[in-house]
Each structure stands twice: as structure tokens, then as C-alpha cells.
Amino acid sequence: MQQRTFAGGVLVPACSPCDEQGAFLEDVYAALLEESLREPLDGAYLCGGTGDGMHMRLEERKAAIRTGVALCRQAGKRSLVQVGAPTMRDALELAAYAAECGADGISSVPLAGFPHAVQMQYYRALIKAGGGLPAILYYMPQPGASFTLGEVLETLSIEGVAGIKCSSDDLFFTEQLAAEKPAGSVLFSGKDEYLAPAVIHGAEGGIGVWATVFPRAYVAIFRYARAGKLAEAFALQRVLNALCCRVLRYGLLSGYAAIRHYLGLHERVFRAPQPQFDPDTYDGFIREAAPLIDQLRACPCPPEPKGDNA
């Protein structure tokens, strides 16, 4: 199998809107993704954590993949499909479907509760099912899915694995990955709170929830950091982190839903029993958050990179 690569840059993790019963709203999804792809983003990450893919039915995920890949192609941008699922059988089926739809790459969280040797077998099977599409590991340490640096690096050495999205709270772990990953392997930062530091230390891309509502600010942080314009990058990073502090105090998913409500966007994007928009606490939260939201939304279109092969 010829080794395939996947370029870096900023991918928006597309939301998968739903109704009160949790049913996927494909038309709303398409409209939101089309709007995102008009921003200075490099593509979309479909059915990931922000996309609530693990809580969608298989046929709903296929609809999201089919529509999302088509919209990315129409916009001349890349599509990366998160195919991880509660069962390996479903993950392999989704990988094959992503390839059938013409996705540019596949991605997957590890199989929860299984040792490293099984994860190696799993990613090889995914790559085969996906017809050789480049695969991006999705690493977010949590109970049942936490691995050593050496184990992650070994998985990155599998033929067909083109990189990793790292959402570890440990910035130094991300720095180690940047320093030791195989040549040609791409590293996406999945932790928005340290996007600028991750890029400064070698990350070639970013995939994070705040790109869905602050696409220009997110891309600006990435591009400024990559260009070595640290003052500009950290000025925006500080504003984003100040908002993150308020959101986490309020509750991440409830806070995110409140911000979407404030911006006039469809607010139900996570399925029950996950937290939803809370009208009883909205006013108090938005009084604190609105100035920061407005500042991030007002960020001008970031400068185009020059001679950057991210």
C-alpha cells in the first residue's frame, strides 16, 4: 500500500443538529456546514465529538458523511470523517462508506477498554476497510483509552496512518508528539485552550469546537502562531481562554448551547441525556460572556499564509 498523507490546517468539527427526540436534522446540518465552509477554514471534521457522532444512529451518521463530504468537495475543501463507533463492525462499515462517498481521510477514537495490541489491529482493519484512505488517530485520554507516548508513536508508524488529533490536557505530551512523530505525519491540536502554544511547538493543524462559532478568530490564532506572530496569536488566545473559563464554570455543553442561542444558531446539537440550553441561567451567563463572544466574532479575516505547506 502506498503511504498517503493528509495536510494540516484548520478543520471545523461540524455539529450534527437534532430535534428534542435526538433525531438528526440533515437540512439544518447542511445549512450550518455550508455557512462554515464559506469561512477561511481548510475543511471539515465530520461526526467527531462536537458532531456527537457516537450518539447518532448508523444511518444518521451515513447521511452526515454523505452530505458533509459532498459539501466539502463543492467548496473545494477537505473532509475528514470520524468513524469510531461503539462496535468495531459499525466503525468498519462507516470507514467503507466514507471511502465510497469520496472522503479525503478517516479518523477514529481508540476502542475503549482494549489494550494497545488490539488498537494496532483495529487501525489496520480500518485502513483496509477504508480502501487505503489516510487515517488520523483521535487521541483523547480517558478511562479505558489512555496510552503511553511510545504506544501512540508505534500506532503512528502503521502504514496508512497519516497523523493524529491530540486532545490531551497535557501540553507537554503534545509537544513530545510534535518532536517524535514520524516524518510526514500531521499533528492536529484538539485542545482549543492551548491552540497557539501547540502550533508554536509544532502542531500543523487544529480541530476544535470553538471553530464552529468563532471560525475567523480560530483560524487567526492558528495562522498568527504558525507565522511566529506571537503577540497577535496570544492576544486572541487570551480572549478565547477567558471565555472558556466562563463556559466551564457554567457547564461546557450548556455554555456552548447558550452561545449558539445568543448567535441565533440551532442550539440543540448534543443528544439527551447530555446537558442542553438552560433558559433559567442564560441571562446571568450571557451578561459575562457576551463581550468576549462579540470580540471573537468581530475578528477580521486572518491573513493568508505565505509559503505555508500546512
From TrEMBL:
<dbReference type="InterPro" id="IPR013785">
    <property type="entry name" value="Aldolase_TIM"/>
</dbReference>
<dbReference type="GO" id="GO:0005829">
    <property type="term" value="C:cytosol"/>
</dbReference>
<dbReference type="Pfam" id="PF00701">
    <property type="entry name" value="DHDPS"/>
</dbReference>
<comment type="similarity">
    <text>Belongs to the DapA family.</text>
</comment>
<protein>
    <submittedName>
        <fullName>Dihydrodipicolinate synthase family protein</fullName>
    </submittedName>
</protein>
<dbReference type="GO" id="GO:0019262">
    <property type="term" value="P:N-acetylneuraminate catabolic process"/>
</dbReference>
<dbReference type="GO" id="GO:0008747">
    <property type="term" value="F:N-acetylneuraminate lyase activity"/>
</dbReference>
<keyword id="KW-0456">Lyase</keyword>
<feature type="active site" description="Proton donor/acceptor">
    <location>
        <position position="138"/>
    </location>
</feature>
<feature type="active site" description="Schiff-base intermediate with substrate">
    <location>
        <position position="165"/>
    </location>
</feature>
<dbReference type="InterPro" id="IPR002220">
    <property type="entry name" value="DapA-like"/>
</dbReference>
<feature type="binding site">
    <location>
        <position position="50"/>
    </location>
    <ligand>
        <name>pyruvate</name>
    </ligand>
</feature>
<feature type="binding site">
    <location>
        <position position="207"/>
    </location>
    <ligand>
        <name>pyruvate</name>
    </ligand>
</feature>
